[in-house]
Design goal:
Layout (H helix, E strand, L loop, with lengths): L16 H9 L12 H8 L26 H14 L9
Length: 94
C-alpha cells in the first residue's frame, strides 16, 4: 500500500476472519481475501471487489512422507487444488 501512496485508517485487527468479513460487509472497511474464494466472498458477503493485489502472495504446502502419492483420494485432492489455486487470475469474474 505504501508504494501506491495508500495510507489506510485501521478500524480493527481481527483474529477471526469471519468477524473481519462481517465488518467489511457492514461497510466499516475493506478486507483481503484469496482470489481462490472470490465467488464465495461475493455471494456470501455481497461485497464489491476493489481489485487484485498481484504483489501479495500466499503459499500452500502439502507434506507427505511418501515420494509419490499413491492413494487416489489424495491425488484427486492435489489435482483439484492445483486447478483451483493456480487458475488464471480474473478468470470467472463477473
Amino acid at each position: 500500500m505504501e508504494s501506491h501512496g495508500i495510507h489506510p485508517v485501521i478500524a480493527g485487527e481481527f483474529k477471526d476472519s469471519a468477524l473481519m468479513k462481517a465488518f467489511g460487509q457492514a461497510g466499516v472497511g475493506v478486507f483481503a481475501g484469496p482470489s481462490a474464494i472470490e465467488k464465495e466472498i461475493r455471494a456470501h458477503y455481497h461485497t464489491p471487489i476493489t481489485g487484485p493485489a498481484h504483489s501479495v502472495t500466499e503459499c500452500f504446502y502439502a507434506i507427505s512422507v511418501q515420494r509419490k502419492l499413491n492413494h487416489p483420494a489424495v491425488s484427486a485432492i492435489r489435482e483439484s487444488a492445483r486447478g483451483q489455486l493456480f487458475a488464471t487470475p480474473g478468470k470467472d469474474r463477473k
